[in-house]
Prior knowledge:
The chain is an alpha/beta fold and about 300 residues long.
Amino acid sequence: MKVARSVRWLGYSALGWLVWRLFGPELTPRFRGRQKNAMPFPGRTVLVGEHELFVREVGPDDGPVLVLVHGWNLDGAMTFHRIVPALSRRFRVIVPDLRNHGKSDWVRGRVEITDLADDLAGVLDAIGVARSLVLGFSMGGMVVQELARRHPRHVRAMILAGTAACPIVEMRIPTRIAFWLARGGLRVSLHEIARVTGEVLHRTGAVQDNHRRWMHEALIRRDPDLYYEIGASVWRFDSRRWIGTLPQPKMVIIPTADEIVPPETQYEMAALLPDAELVELEGGLHESVLNRPAEYIEAITRFAGSLA
Length: 308
């Protein structure tokens, strides 16, 4: 009887929640203190093929060019807002939004990492940038690998951070099932998932108190299907056969406690790049670019100086 009552209670709760999501008002969380935009730098769109892609350019026009490529889930501003202000004092910093992220076009249909690399090359061509230091974080690191292979004119040197040559080696089928389930949850619970994600980022120090509303609003600006179509491209990515042939100077940054991209896959990539400088962030989580920005700024600046 207790089991039956529990099942009925869960059923009624689920029904009530569904009715609320269909017909109830949207509840915006309240955040303490004065809230502000964490990335108050204007951007513009450029046309790449048939699609508009968004890009920000910050810093001196005559400075060395640094391109920052975000990963899956967070767009360029969300990923790099903790490091752009400091880096823009020395570099001309280019921060694009990949398709289906941020303010770039939402493009229906299957997509691969190669498509994102081609998009990025189109953005850099459109703004007249070549031979740059390019940093790719997480999925962005996979995009940078493909950019260096397919469009080497754009990559003078690369920094691969929190990324891998083959991020999902084991448990591939369970991972794919988890993606499907997460997509379903995001379809019906976008606001709740955004709130939980924002809370996790805040508690790990990745989002400051006065940027919480800005981050929340960015997190709810997502299409669940396109978001997970991009995620599936990560699931299929594997550069192990050719990454070692890339001739550009390289730095690899590994957060050693990464909970998203397994550190063993990151070390596997580093082993395939014996000429790369290795930077280990001891105890660093995947969101280390957000909660340990000073270490990224130092590593980027030092590596750029070594290229001069």
